[in-house]
Amino acid sequence: MTLPSYAVDFRGFPACPCLAVWIPVYELELQRRALLTGPLHIYQLIGGAPDSAGTHTKGGALDDDRVTEQAIWVARQMGADASWHRRLNWDGQGGMEHAHHVLRGCPHNDPARYQITAVDAGFNGLGHLGHAALDDGPRPLSGRTWREGIAWAKQLQQQEDDLMVFSEWPAAEKKALGQFIQDQVRATLIETDTNGDGIAVPTHFGSIVKDLVVDVNDIKKKIGA
User: Fold this and answer.
1) Whole-prediction pTM
2) Which end of the chain is more exposed for a tag (fewer CB within 10 A), N or C?
3) 28-37, 141-150, 189-198: which has the minimum mean pLDDT?
4) Which residues make Cβ contacts (< 8 Å) with residue 70, sequence separation at least 6?
5) Eight-state DSSP code of residue 140
6) Which band of pLDDT confidence, cut at 50, 70 and 90, is reported for residue 223?
7) Domain segments of the chain as ranges
8) Measured at the alpha carbon of residue 147, what is the angle toward residues 141 and 150, in degrees to the nearest 5?
9) Distance (Å, rounded) from C-alpha 23 to C-alpha 62?
10) CA triplet 54, 51, 86: central angle to 5 degrees?
């Protein structure tokens, strides 16, 4: 088949630019959820496999090996609501097991766009108009475009980065945090009452603030500050 002029090379496969941007983020989200180790195993991007009935000829469609319900759910959340686990013999002619995805909002997906319409109507994207059977994938659908799906995944990935486990912090950052906490607590104290233990405690805060300061000191000891 003749490739469209906009086709780009993606790991040795011809792809539309949308897929080339979407797949790495999808991979990362699957890896983050322990649904994938290493790169995605791709079967077809732009291509003319006879069993695909032309849905891959322009772009916006992907076949891969991540067939679990969780992986299909991630794909749907990432702007590929038209994602399905195609089981062995899905076409009645010995068709191989794979996951099939179509990106919503991709301008190159015209031959496969009817499958998006089909899943929106509750069908599985096979047969006439994609209405051969009811949709068997996880619902509700996200309704996101592929760009919105990337933004959704990147936000989750960034949140995980921001919530790095405290035990993994560098020692200097642990120490700095402990000092910052203690400084901020001490800065709020009105030194009106000293109980002989070297800790100034405002009378109107009573023992609650004293306990807080003691706890901060304990935290500092625990983190080695």
Assistant:
1) 0.73
2) N
3) 189-198
4) 33, 35
5) S
6) low
7) 8-162, 166-222
8) 80
9) 9
10) 105
